[in-house]
Design a protein that fits this description.
Layout: E1 2-10, E2 19-26, E3 29-35, E4 45-48, E5 52-56, E6 58-63, H1 79-91, H2 96-112, E7 115-122, H3 125-135, E8 138-145, H4 150-167, E9 175-177, E10 180-181, H5 189-202, E11 206-210, H6 214-224, H7 228-235, E12 242-246, H8 252-260, E13 264-267, H9 269-274, H10 282-287, E14 291-294, H11 307-322, H12 330-337, H13 339-344, E15 362-366, H14 378-384, E16 391-396, E17 399-403, E18 406-407, H15 412-423
Parallel strand pairs: 1-4, 1-5, 6-7, 7-8, 8-9, 8-10, 11-12, 12-13, 13-14
Antiparallel strand pairs: 1-2, 2-3, 5-15, 15-16, 16-17, 17-18
Helix pairs in contact: 2-3, 2-15, 4-5, 11-12, 12-14
Length: about 425
Amino acid sequence: MRILIRGAAVVPKPEEGVLSADVVVEGKRFAGVFPTGEAGGEFDRVIEGEGKLLVPGFVNAHTHLPMTLFRGLAEDLALREWLEERIWPAERKLTPEVVYWFALLGLVEMIRTGTTAFADMYFFMEEVGKAVEEAGLRALLSYGIIAPTPDRIEPELKKAEAFAREWNGAAEGRIRCALSPHAPYTCGPEVWKEAVRLAKELKLPLHTHLCETRHEVEAHREAYGKGPVQWLEELGAFAVPVIAAHCVWVTEKDIDILAAHNVSVAHCPSSNLKLASGIAPVWAMVKGGVNVAIGTDGAASNNTLDMVREMRLAALLAKVRAEDPRAMPAPEALKSATQRGAAALGWAKDLGAIEEGHLADCVLLDLGAAHFAPGHDPLADLVYTACGADVEMVMVGGEILMEGRELQTLDEEKIVARCRELARKFR
């Protein structure tokens, strides 16, 4: 299949700004970016891009997809109370069927708002894998290991390993796997050491929660005499690629450690604000050489999976935290939502740019709405003005998942109806 996206305003890479261009897709990859009107040859499909903005697909670097089930269920609570008294008890009632359908619900929302790849950790991950296969997105999936007591260690690690061995490389390579010790406060040294050993053996990254709350960090210092970042470094956890979600309460020394070991941070601004966890020092991390991507976290603590909204908030909060309006300018925010997310998920060479040879994962936004006028700077408008509802077309690996705001791979009406029905037992 040879596709021409004709005459769009194109952002090949955030640092390159916006240009008017024709983009050619051949099979699963981009075949070239040409000045408007100069793409030659025959095409099986022509997509008109005039009045639209074409950008690399958004990469959600940290979420828990099936937690769409808990959207609106446990509101206005502190993290510890939210997690231990409301979410964990509700999760004990999960079934594979429930996880499958609410994963599909999350995927509907992701496609509609322009996400083309994401990193996810949860339970019954085989069901999430099935949903991703059907939807057509790209994902880094992992079973969330929670082993606070010795009797949980072996069975949890076995579940994580079995899932990774079965699903890594599935869906024609669109699904990759990670190993996910949930956090330093739910997994002790034995779990981390074994997870690192397995990650090295299977050549997989780790995905975890790190330094999310002040209480978590203080409790860790009391227990171990050092913060979670230094503790993980000494355990050897950073000897493999790591995605560390949140990193709200990190010190300058922590930032140096994360940068030195090429740890990717998944910044989740909405979740951190909603749970009053704090504002991560994002700009300090970026300037310190840390690969800072953006994630939504789960819909239970966000309450959306809209990466466009999350990108805007990440940019604004970085300015407030740094007390500098020049911090996290629009191109940097877009880079965190695309290129840096691709790097975090291990797809740095294939995703995050619209250029020859890269996988054809891209999003087309309609610039015709009033909130885009007068249109002085489309890239700035994307970061500070746009919303997920502006996404009109989504493509992953040359396959169109949504066109004209119509989903092509999922039955949204059926999914929403089934999820409403299943949710009744959790009220």
